[in-house]
Every structure is written in C-alpha cells, then in structure tokens.
Amino acid sequence: MCLAIPARVIALTGPDEAVVDLGGIRKTVSIALVPDAAIGEYVIVHVGHAIGRIDAAEAARTLALFGELAAQAALADTSTMETTTWAR
Amino acid sequence: MCLAIPARVIALTGPDEAVVDLGGIRKTVSIALVPDAAIGEYVIVHVGHAIGRIDAAEAARTLALFGELAAQAALADTSTMETTTWAR
Amino acid sequence: MQPGRRYNFMEFCGGHTHAISRYGIAELLPPAVRMIHGPGCPVCVLPIGRIDLAIQLALQHGAIVCTYGDTMRVPASHGLSLTKAKARGGDIRMVYAATDALRIARENPDREVVFFAIGFETTTPPTAVALRDAERAGLTNFSVLCCHVLTPAAITHILASADASEGSAAPLDGFVGPAHVSIVIGSAPYEPFARAWRQPVVIAGFEPLDVMQAILMLVRQVNDGRAEVENEFTRAVSRDGNRTAQALVDDVFMPRDSFEWRGLGEVPHSALQIRPGFAAFDAERKFPLTYTPVADNKACECGPILRGVKQPTDCKIFGTVCTPENPVGACMVSSEGACAAHYAYGRFRDIPIRVEAAAGAAA
Amino acid sequence: MQPGRRYNFMEFCGGHTHAISRYGIAELLPPAVRMIHGPGCPVCVLPIGRIDLAIQLALQHGAIVCTYGDTMRVPASHGLSLTKAKARGGDIRMVYAATDALRIARENPDREVVFFAIGFETTTPPTAVALRDAERAGLTNFSVLCCHVLTPAAITHILASADASEGSAAPLDGFVGPAHVSIVIGSAPYEPFARAWRQPVVIAGFEPLDVMQAILMLVRQVNDGRAEVENEFTRAVSRDGNRTAQALVDDVFMPRDSFEWRGLGEVPHSALQIRPGFAAFDAERKFPLTYTPVADNKACECGPILRGVKQPTDCKIFGTVCTPENPVGACMVSSEGACAAHYAYGRFRDIPIRVEAAAGAAA
Amino acid sequence: MSTRPDYVRPLDIKHGRIDMGHGAGGRAAAQLIDELFARAFHNRFLGQGNDGACLPAPPPGHRLVLATDGHVVSPLFFPGGDVGCLSVHGTVNDVAMCGAVPLYLTASFILEEGFPLADLQRIVASMAAAAREAGVPIVTGDTKVVEQGKGDGVFICTTGLGAVPPGVEVSGANARPGDVLLLSGSIGEHGVAVLSQRESLGFETSITSDTAALHTLVAAMLHSAPGGVRVLRDPTRGGLATTLNEIARQSAVGLHLQEAAIPVLPQVDAACELLGLDPLYVANEGKLVAVVAPEAADAVLAAMQAHPLGRQACRIGMVTDDPQHFVQMDTRFGGRRVVDWLSGEQLPRIC
Amino acid sequence: MSTRPDYVRPLDIKHGRIDMGHGAGGRAAAQLIDELFARAFHNRFLGQGNDGACLPAPPPGHRLVLATDGHVVSPLFFPGGDVGCLSVHGTVNDVAMCGAVPLYLTASFILEEGFPLADLQRIVASMAAAAREAGVPIVTGDTKVVEQGKGDGVFICTTGLGAVPPGVEVSGANARPGDVLLLSGSIGEHGVAVLSQRESLGFETSITSDTAALHTLVAAMLHSAPGGVRVLRDPTRGGLATTLNEIARQSAVGLHLQEAAIPVLPQVDAACELLGLDPLYVANEGKLVAVVAPEAADAVLAAMQAHPLGRQACRIGMVTDDPQHFVQMDTRFGGRRVVDWLSGEQLPRIC
Ligand code: SF4
Ligand code: SF4
Ligand SMILES: [Mg+2]
Ligand SMILES: [Mg+2]
Ligand SMILES: [Mg+2]
Ligand SMILES: [Mg+2]
Ligand SMILES: [Mg+2]
Ligand SMILES: [Mg+2]
Ligand SMILES: [Mg+2]
Ligand SMILES: [Mg+2]
Ligand SMILES: [Mg+2]
Ligand SMILES: [Mg+2]
C-alpha cells in the first residue's frame, strides 16, 4: 500500500507546485503538503503530491547501517551473476 | 428535386401512419398529409410522407399514351439488347 | 415541329434535369429543341450564408444538426461544408425524414437538436408535420432552420428578369412544370404567369416518357401559339393540389418578405418562415444567429446557369477546378445540379465510341 | 535469535507484503521468523458495497467516476468490477492523482464528476487538497466518494480480536509499522497500543534492506522483552509526522462512527467522512446512494487472512477458482493483496529447479 | 496466437463483454484467443502458436498474391451475413481477382471495450464457417482492444495469400478495345441489405447480401478459356460504376455499357428509388466483372452460367478506344450518358 | 490500390481532414491513395493497381511465414516513433521471430473521420521510411474511414510475408532444459515512452521507444550458429514476463532468470516506480529474447553484441525442467520468486 518514492526538488514552479527529478525523469508535483520544500531537497512523492521530506543526515546513517547489515547477512552472492552497466 | 415514388398502401398502422409496399420493399410512412388514404391505393411518398395519391383511371390513360408515344418516336431499338429476367 | 424554328424550354425542376441526363433524353430530342436547366434544385439555390448558419449551429452552438443527405457536400464559407464541419467535430446527422430529427431530439433531451430544412413545396409539408408534432409533444430542445422556398415566385422572377433585359436571361418558349411540387400546390398557381408572360407550361411526371410527352405538348402549344397550363401528370396532379398539406403549411409557415437565392439574388416573397406562434421552434429566433450573405466564387457561373442564360460548359472552371469532388459552385453539388448532371452524364458528347477494327465482336 | 523460539510478525502494510514477495525476502529469513500479511492494502479492505456505490454512480447516475488504477479490477456485486462496468458503458476513468479528477470536472462542466477516493493516511491528504481546491474554485460538478480508512484503528482492532479470543487471531509478536502512512501521522500514534498490548512496533521503509533491518530490530525487542515503538525509517518519519497534512485533513474530514472493512467487519472509528462544511462535495450526500453491505464469497478466506489467522494457501479455492485473472476475494486483486502476492511470487516454493544432467552450461 | 496458460474458469460467453484486459497481452488475452478464436478457426498452422504461421510454399512456377482489406461494416449483422463472413469473402475475392488460388488468410481484430462476447462468438463462428467453406484456413491472427468510444464493435482486417498458376495473366491493365465485359449477376444487393438495417433508413425487404467467395467461379472461368480472361474485379465499395472506371483508367480504354443488360432485382431498384441511390454505385460482395477476349467470351460466359454463383451471368458491354477513358452507357431509355466515378459518399437523397 | 482518375485539385494536406468521402471507394478515396499512400510507399508491386499484389515466390526449399498485427497505440506519436513505423517494425519482427526473412508487407488503414491529413502524412512517411530502411516493401493496402467517435485517429493492420531458408527451425515449442536464455538489450523503453505522453500520467523523460526492425539481427544470430537458435520472440505487449511464460508453456519447460542480469535503464526503472509498474511487464518493440542451445550460446551472444541492435545483449537465465512451467527468478536481493503472466491490464497503481 501507498506507493511513494523519493525525488529531488529541482524547481519551484508556482504556489504549491514543484518539478521533481527521479532518476532522470521529471514530473510536476503538488507541494501543498510540504509547502517549505526547497530546491535540492528530497521529498517523498505519492499520487502526485510530495507528502514528506527526507532528512539527509538520517539517510546517510541508514545507508551506513545497510552496509553493515548486508555484510552481516551475506544476503546474496551477486558476484556469480552477470550484470550490465544498466542492470537495475 | 423532390425525389418521390408511388407506393401501394398495404396497412394502416396508426393515426397518420401506414405501411406501403414499393416493388417488394415495405416501409412505414406518415399519412398525415393524405389522412384518407385507403388500403390498396397508390400514394406518392416523399421523405417518409405520403404527399399525394395516384388516380388509377388517369394512370391507365397515361400508360396508354406512353404506348403511343413510344411507338411514334421509336425511342430505342431495345430488341438488339440482351436483357435478363430482372433487367431493370 | 416547324422547320427552322428553335424551341427553348426550361425544365424548372432538378428532378427533370436528372431524368434528362440519366436517361440521355437530350440526345433523343430533335436538334431544334434545347432544354435549359432551371433553378429547381433546392440544394443548388441555397446560398452559402444559409449553410454557414447550419455549420454555426453545429460548431459554435454545439447543436445536433439534422439534415437531408443532399446538403452534406454543399460548399460553405472557409472551405467548409456540412461534411467537413462534421469531420471537424460538428454533430451533424443525416436523416431520411424530418420525423427522424424529432426522434433524435427525444433521445437527446439535454442537447439542442436543429433540423436544417430545405426544399420546395413538396418537402415543406413534412417539415410542417414535424413542427406540429413537436409542439404537441411539448419538445423544448427541437427547432428548425427553415430554408423552404417557393416555386411560383422563382419562376416569376426568372420571367421578370428575362423581360427586363434581353440577353441577361434566356429567351424562353415554355416551361416543363414540376411534378411533385405540383402534387401539393396543384396546377392553378401556374396560371397567372402563363397568362401574364404568355408562356406555355406543361406539368410533367418524372419518368423519362413523362418528360418526352411534356416536351411534345410544349412543342404543340408553341406551334399552336397557345400559352396554357397543361397537365401531363394527371395521375397525381389536380388543379387544386393537396388541400390538407396546404392548410398545415399555412398553419405553421408564412412568407418571408424576401430571401436570397444562389444565382438569383434576393427574390421577393420567395420563401417561408416559421409563424410567431411556433417561434419556440424557430432556430433563427432561438439561437443568436446573424445571416451574412456571401458572394459566390467569382469564376462561378451558377447564377447565369440557374437563370437559364448560360450552360455548364460556358463556365471556365467546369470539369477542371470545379468537379463533383471539389465543387466550387452549388450546381456541382447535388447530382441534379445542372453542372453535376452535365459532368456525370453529359461529357461523352464530344467523344464518339471507337472500337478498334480488329474487334468486331458483339457487346 | 533465541534457539527454539518462534517469531510471528505482522507486516501491516501491503507495500511491505509486496517487497517481501517481490524480492523473495521470506526465503532469506531464518525459519523461526514467520511474516503474517496484514490488512494494509486499501483495495483489499474495501468492502464490495463501496465498489457497488461507485458503479452505481457511473451506471445509474451517469457520473464520470475517477479512480486510481488499483480499484479497477476489484470484484463487486453481480460479477461486476469497475473495469467491467466501464465495458458496460460506465464513464470510468483511471487517474494518477486526485487533481486529475478536478481537471476532468473543469473540462466537463455539464457532467457530474466523482472521485472515488481510497487509501490510508498517506493518500488522504492529497484528497483533502483536491477538496480544498474544488471549494476554492467553486466547482459545482465535483464530489468525492470517500473511503479513506485509518491505520491505528485497524491495528487496534486486530489486537483486540487477538486478545478477545485465542485462535481467532494470530499470536503476534510484533508489527512492522507502515512506512508512508507514518510519514504523515508520525510514530507517536503507535505508542498507545504498543504499550497497551505489549507489542513491539518497528516502522520500516520499503526497500528490502529496510524490511530486513526492521525484522532484525523486532527480533531484538522480543529477545530483550521490550515492546516499544522503534523507527527504522528515520530518514522520512518523525514522531509528529507531517503537521501541514494533518491539519488539512482535519479541516476537511472527520472520523466516521464505524466503517465496514472487508475481512474485519465493522470497525469503530476506523474511517473518515467529509465534514458538513464540505457537504456539497460529498458524493454520499449529493447522490441518492444507499449502502448495502454484501457478504463475501463463502469460500473466500480473505477475512481470516487479513486478520492474520490464515495464509493464502489455507483457502480452498486459492490458485484454482480464485486467480488474479478471476479474483474472487479482494486479496487476489491488487498485486499487494496477500493472495495475489503469493500467487504471483510465492508459488515456486514447492518446485525445485531442475536442469537435465546433459545441460551443464552456465545461465 | 499463444498456448493455454493456467486460467481456470472458462469465458462467460453468454454474459461477458470485452474489457481492456482482453487486449493487454496477458492471461485474459490468451484465454480469449484460445477459447474463442483458436477453437473456431482450428487448423494445424494456427496451432503452431508462434508470432506467425509457417507454411508450405506453392509448387515452383507459381507467383504469389497478397491482398488485404479492413472490414468496418455497420451494422455488424445484416440480412445474409455479418462482418465475419464478409471479412473472409472480401479478401478471398481480392486474391481471386488477381487470378490466384487463395491459400491462407490472416485475421486482425480490433475490438471495442464493452462488445458482447456472444456477438463476437457469432461473428467468429460465421468467419470460421466461411473460411472452411472456401477451403482457405485462417492461419494466424491478432486481437487488440480499444476503449469504448474509440472503436465500433469489431473491425476485422484480413490478408490473403494466394498462388497464381503458370500461364494465368489477369490484371486491371489488360483490357483491350473490342474485349467483352461480363458481369456474374445482379447488382446492389449487399449495399441495400446493409442500408435496410440502418435505424434512420429502416425498411423491410427480403433482399439479402450477396456476400460469397468467388474463387471457384474464377477457377472455372480461367479453365474455360486459357489466356482469355484479361481482367477480373469485384465491384465492392463504389459499386459497378466505380470498378468499371478503375478498369478504364488502368487499361487506358473506354467502356461502353448497355444499361438494359445489367441485372438489378426489382426490390433493389425500389430501395434505390426510395433512398435516391443509383444501383450502379451500390456495393456488391459476391459479384465479379470480367473483361475477356472477344473470342473467349462465349466459353467464359458458359462456364460462369454453369457455376452456382454465375447462373445469371451476362454480357453488359464492351471495351472501346477512348483517350478520355470514359465509361459510357446506352440507357435503357435509348439515350447515352457517362457513368462517372462515385463522388464523395453515396448518401441517401431526397431530391 | 487504384490508378489516378481525373481529379484536379491536389489534396490540401496542410488543412484538410479525413471525411467520410475518403472511405467511400470513389474519386476521393482514389485521390487519397494516390497522393498520400502510393506516393510514399512507391514500389513496383504497389504500382500494379490491382485488388492485390502479384509477387515472385521465394526460391524452392523455402517455407513461407505469414504474421499479422493491428496497431492501435495511443498517443499516435511518441518519443522515438509513431504508429506508422511501429506498424512496420511490429510485423517485420513477428516474421523474423519465426526465423524467416521478411519479404513483403501489406497495410490496412482504418481512419477516423476528422483526422488531420497532415498527421496522416507524417505517419505514412514514417511508415514508408521504416519499410525502406528494413528493405521490406508495402505491396498492397486498404483504407477505410469510420465516423468520428467510432475510431481513434488511425489504426494500422499490417501483415508480413517472409521466407524461412532451408535448415532454419525456430519455434516457441523448441526450448529444452539446459538451453540458454539471451536478451538483446534493456527492457521497458517502448511502454514507458508511450505512457510518458499520456495526459494524466505525463512526465518528462529522455526515454525513447526502442522500436526497430530486428530481422537483420536475427539473420546474424541464425548465421552465427546454424541450428543453434531454438526460440525467438519479441517481448511486446505484456513485456518480457509474459513472453517468457508463453515460451515456458509452449515448450513445456520451466525458465530460471537472474533479475540482476536483466538490463533496465535507470529512467525506465524510475518511471516504473513512479507509476507502480514492473518493467518485466512493460512492452518493448525493438528487443528479442532467444533460447539457444548451450553449445551455441557464446557464438550467438557474440553475434548479437556485434550487431547495432544487440550491443547490450546478455544471458538472463536458462531453461529448466518444470512440470508446472513456471518462470522463476532469483531476485537481485537474493531471494527467489515466480514471474507470472500479466493479469488483466497493467494499470498504473498508487499502492
Ligand atoms: S462548373 Fe462549378 S463553378 Fe462553374 S458554374 Fe458550375 S458549379 Fe459554378
Ligand atoms: S484465494 Fe481468493 S477467495 Fe481465497 S482467500 Fe484469497 S482472495 Fe479470498
Ligand atoms: Mg482489397
Ligand atoms: Mg475486398
Ligand atoms: Mg476488390
Ligand atoms: Mg499480435
Ligand atoms: Mg461506438
Ligand atoms: Mg503478431
Ligand atoms: Mg508484433
Ligand atoms: Mg511478437
Ligand atoms: Mg480494399
Ligand atoms: Mg475518438
């Protein structure tokens, strides 16, 4: 439930409106629910609305934690798989 | 202008309404303009309305006259043409 | 037939034009008899401005415009026609009868439905029936854009202009009178002008033999020096016509002071309008429409052709720029228009049938 | 992990269900950890009667019904669904955002446009924005059929039924808390029931690593005997949530006394309705609709599955009569429904991969 | 065409309707193909289940013919046929008009969301019967679904592949002055049968569409006078008048018709008068016109008259030398006129 | 296709629109065909002007392949292509996926009244360019016009005829356990490019459709390892997932994929996340998947990578023995799951 994705604000285009970038695609979204979102900031987008923001410091912390977890659990032996430059 | 065709009344189906037969096809038409059209009578049909009636005696007279005219004018030497049973 | 004499007859009615072309009757007539195509095709005489009104109703006012198939291809302003306006999103529907337009109005209570009514006295009574029925049913979304025109007024106008200036109208020796119009109005209405302008009139049926017979009767009148109204179509036409139809038309319609005809210009008392009692069903009152007369294409000779002064082949663009596929003038639109009929049926005349010598077999 | 101990965790949220299935996470967990799919797919919990209302609006009231793609295939009464109602002529349009429904209302001023609004606290604020904007714009042809539901009420209900009767609900050892719902409501609302029912809660993001990490954190709480609200998703979730969103929702919506959830039955204070001040935009007031509860298909185990008591494979018709192509119960509709997720992603478990001996090459 | 995946409940043909899922290429689409199309059209080529059908080639010396037509008739069902059999006959005939033996058909369906499965099944059954009767299997196909209001029930595009035996040379360009024009039967029935079902024109008639596959008639004609048949064409849209104008233009000749020789059923004539149409411009779907060498005319005509679909065959005119490529006609009244191309649509007229 | 009758004024491509007359089979239809279609597609077969095209047969020993597809994409123009080139590529590819050399195409157009002639010309030009580039001429065609609201601009049904050289045996039924699965490049671009243009979803992206004719790639593959290519298929509607399920079912095998090996452009991934779609189910129009014998895999892969349309080709999995014919996948997270058929339509989701 509640498909939402982080996207970077790249332009403020009107009252309550911003353009966000998400992996190279751009979409105009409503920022009525995060009115003080700033350019460069990451927001979480759901059904065309930014519903929250991402805390950069916390994100870095989580990333580090994931690194640990991955090491711990040896989740997948990806080294045996063929990958390409754009493998998702 | 004013494409209209003679058709025979074969049923009176409602106030101002009759079914006419025209060379084997049947169509419901308005008889609002010839309210006293009777079954068996020929009417002249235009845009879905009977607009007049055909006088049987006069029609016979015209037919006879056409016979004369055709003979007089030798209009077409149809004897040399191939015809079929349903040539129009 | 009197040797050396020429006979110029006008068939007023497009139906006769069609019969003459379709059955190749012109070919069968003696060379001394020339048939002149009159303005009796209601589509041909409809001025551009009236079609523009119908297109306005569809494109600007969002109305469903119902119309007979004949009017679909008539050229209007801006390169449009009802067919092209339909392709541009206008809700334009071909109907076979005025009552179909009523049905469409009943089926679309939240849309305005306008019946674009054209035609002579034959087609007017069915429109009157539709208006009467719409009033009885209390329909509020149905109206009629009335373009019904009157035959006697047009004939009088043609004779008047022939009288007024030699050469600007054809020297006429007589008229083939309309078949189906006369069923409704009877033969009496032709009597005044037959008398006044000393013109023989023979009302004829639409079968090719009717037309041949009527021409024969006209030749006889001319030879006898008579100018009477004769009736070849006695099987359907009486002196009085259809009184029921006349009464109903009179209930619903009244004459206009004047009406524009393509090719004839403004002709007084030549058309009908909807009576004030039926104003609620009159599209010209119901919608904010303004009629703008539009000049015909300069090259087009429809006017002189409709007045009987010229023939289609006199038009510089006949068959080249103006063709049934791209009609410039109205005479090219309906297959009964003088130009279309000549284009479709008459062009062979310059081309004899040749079969190579080797090919002797039968056909 | 404590030897011999079993850990039963419910992921409330369908997004977590999806992540677990799509990335094959269940396979990677130690056998002692069992994940129970909760009722956190808003499509799955939507009762038939609410979809029937939306279909009524389209087919009986002629409204344009706008809805998120997720609801299109949900089975309704009489073998219908929104997809099938559309095929029967209903004007039903998939939108990506509530604001698209507003645009459609503006573009169709002579049609009624209803937004069929579903979703948890994540999706409610965008609907609130649409209602606020509709009011500001003075739209008179736009309304919302509100089916927004509340997460804490549902979790409380599950815990209450687990408490009330052993066996009728699963013995739970903790919750993976919703990611995006929590962005809006914050982590505080989970605290009361974590305390009251002594249940550990870990709010998790939707990346597979988020889920793994959250499960690890739950295991630690259980092992430590703690029952706290922890937040794995600190990068987006705060204790207070999005105050702006909460305020707007509060302006426009208020709790319902009770709302039917598929599988859970009537749950008190578990959904929102539109406030009287916005009554003009409330489809339930604007149209003469009566809600008729409809019993689920008898064979369907969606209820127990949503309550965490059963698993998809416990349903007799799973994968035979009930498939994603012909969903019987709601859990088979959305790919995040517990049954659909298991059908699409989980069926391989009984089938080991076999490659013929001859074929030794790489893959 | 794809193979059967693991769906369980059969299609509800009686109450079901086409929805967008049937066109999405997944399980619903595969089920529709299997239970409706493949079942009806069943043949070994269709059963291959690949992106196309792999087929044996005709014997050496044959040339190939490809013909394609979209079928968009409204209403879909009309007296004497429906869009299904029409889509088989229309393309089989186009292949045959090239002098070829029709071998295989392909069928591409564009279905409108909401179309009743029961109607689709009727159409598919009619199509299957027509293909079976013609002996030309439907070897591959496609199904697309468009939203309601973006289609009109069913459109069917068929393509036919045929083989021209050595020695056969038939083309619209081959008519020569002196050649004889043959017509296989009365004209206008298809168009009138379809018009009779239109709500706003509606009239009752016993006229049925003449829709039929003409390839066996063509085979008999070609066999009766090797090399004698120069042009074959089926006067469909635009009617006999338009087809003859095409031939005149393509062969750079004139044509000279005898109106009295052209058979028209009285009911067709009556319907045309009622609607202000000319039967010469009304569509046929089971008639052909042939241009034959004068010395072959008798033999070809006899072969036609001996075939059930050519019993009323007749001579209707001849090919002439005419730099303007006019089609002219001696009217049954004895006059002469040009028979022109159809202009625009042929619309019912009031005057 | 017909020859030029005596109309005079050229089509007004700039301002004109399709009206019902363009489909009536008369002079307007002939003009549209001549000035728009025939002019763009020009080739000697089309120029024959008959009911079908008469074509030379392939050399003895070849089998024939027929494939057909209707093209109904909305919007008609999308980044990287339009319905015109798509209708060429789609059918050329289906012919190629049967192991055949595509030789000829037919095209059947269903036009909606009111469609701008300028747009039609753009589409036809794109189609002509695609056919020319592929070296596969459009040899015959058809045009129908439907009333406004009964079509959707332009539908194009194309049929392709090809020839399978002796020795080539390619079919969806030929996969065997142990065979290797190859994919010619990244997936999902076509579907995402089309979706990006839909009003209600609209997003900006530099993704363009991958639409392309794959027959030269196929030729290179077949040449690289005679007999080694067992199955070829283009993962169009329903995406890679559906295509693989078709192969599994048809060959009665299982398939085992490595998710990490399947190339997806980051933008495609992002768009799919935004819309709640799975790239495995998104349509492609210029990609193919091949099942090859294990001993041929290296050679075929090398041949693909040497071709411009296969530079990113890779192994994505293998064929297994599975009585349930499941497609399974090792996820990039290390788990395992079933990759099922597409159910219904793939609709954008919010949750
Ligand atoms: S040919 Fe055309 S332009 Fe000339 S008079 Fe006739 S209708 Fe008018
Ligand atoms: S398989 Fe279907 S019927 Fe059974 S519980 Fe799941 S959704 Fe309900
Ligand atoms: Mg054809
Ligand atoms: Mg055909
Ligand atoms: Mg043909
Ligand atoms: Mg296909
Ligand atoms: Mg429709
Ligand atoms: Mg295909
Ligand atoms: Mg294809
Ligand atoms: Mg394919
Ligand atoms: Mg065709
Ligand atoms: Mg449309």
TrEMBL record, chains A, B:
The family database entries (InterPro entries) matched by this protein are listed as: Hydgase_assmbl_chp_CS (IPR019812), Hydrogenase_HupF/HypC (IPR001109)
In the record, biological process GO terms are:
protein maturation
Molecular function terms from GO: carbon dioxide binding; iron ion binding
Cross-referenced NCBIfam families: hypC_hupF
Instruction: Give the PANTHER family listed for this entry.
Output: HYDROGENASE MATURATION FACTOR HYBG (PTHR35177)
Its family remark reads: Belongs to the HupF/HypC family.
Q: Per its record, how is this protein called by name?
A: Hydrogenase assembly protein HupF
In its UniProt entry, the species of origin is given as Pseudaquabacterium pictum
Automatic annotation (TrEMBL), chains C, D:
Asked whether the keyword Iron is assigned, the reply is yes
Spell out the InterPro entries in the cross-references: Hyd_form_HypD (IPR002780), HypD_1 (IPR042243), HypD_2_sf (IPR042244)
Instruction: List the molecular function annotations (GO) for this entry.
Output: 4 iron, 4 sulfur cluster binding; carbon monoxide binding; iron ion binding
Please tell me whether the keyword Metal-binding is annotated for this protein. Answer: yes
Q: Which GO terms describe its biological process?
A: protein maturation
The record's family statement is: Belongs to the HypD family.
NCBIfam families (UniProt xref): hypD (TIGR00075)
Protein name in UniProt = Hydrogenase maturation factor
Taxonomic placement? Bacteria, Pseudomonadati, Pseudomonadota, Betaproteobacteria, Burkholderiales
From TrEMBL, chains E, F:
Q: Which residues form the PurM-like C-terminal domain?
A: 176-329
One biological process term in Gene Ontology: protein maturation
Give the PurM-like N-terminal domain ranges. 49-164
Q: Which InterPro entries does the record associate with it?
A: HypE, PurM-like_C_dom, PurM-like_C_sf, PurM-like_N, PurM-like_N_sf
Which family is annotated? Answer: Belongs to the HypE family.
Name recorded for this polypeptide: Hydrogenase expression/formation protein HypE
- Gene name in the database record: hypE
